[in-house]
Amino acid sequence: MGDLAFDTTVVGEGGRYRAELSRDWEIWGPNGGYLAALALRAAGAYTPLRRPATFTCHYLGVADFEHVDLLVEPMRESKRAASLRVSMRQHDTPILEAMVWVVGELDGLRHDAAPMPAGVRPPEELPSVGELLEPEDMVYHRFWSNFDERPLRWIPRSEWVDREPGEPRVQSWYRYVPTATFTDPFVDAARVLLLIDTLMWPAAVRAYRNDDLTFYAPSIDLSAQFHGLAPESEWLFCEAYSPTARDGLVGGSTAVWSQDGRLLGTGAQQMMCRPGSLQPGT
Questions:
Q1: How many DSSP H helices and E strands does the chain contain?
Q2: Residue 76, SS3?
Q3: Does the chain have fewer CB atoms within 10 Å around its N or its C terminus?
């Protein structure tokens, strides 16, 4: 397993940084949310402002598990806010292009009308995926070893292959392991960003029978808004929903709450279908 803070460490100064990609975040290559987290960390290394506000990126290439170079360029800077462009490249090949808003200490309006979905059981009352897996089951990607996952609804592997199409929605608790919480606000926000990116595909596939999944769908973009920080909350509750797939594109949104019910982040994503025969590992 990997450690999110350590594995998203960037080194450098003056807007030029380098990071080593860890294989612990492998899923069809380096996970897209992991790459986004690295770009967010680079933005945090550049600016003295400490409150991530928004993150948007285009995924431009598939990286290898080697080092990547990150260039942070200010688009607009003030004492209260900064718009930063983050470019990730590997051996001169574009991998990711991101825009990040970061803000300082601000005062303003305050309301909260985004409760957690009704009837969500706390993680302590739910079995972990490790307890639910059958002895013969295997974790296909080592990426999933980075979480203690407690799903609200579990489909056993024996039923997954012959499942009927259902609602394209995933609801689950996640706790990062071996380290669950982080005091650095950019790592704390990265916890949310990575989950927003990752869960759309698991939600989308629930709309199909296993035999009908002749495509896989890597992300082409990601957009996230950070509504709050929760460095004290070990558990994060996520709801991902993919309401539509059409013309080779699969879309949806994800929301993430703290354990005490505060909405921490929301995001949207577009994925592009590719023939299953081209999927890495097949």
A1: 6, 14
A2: strand
A3: C
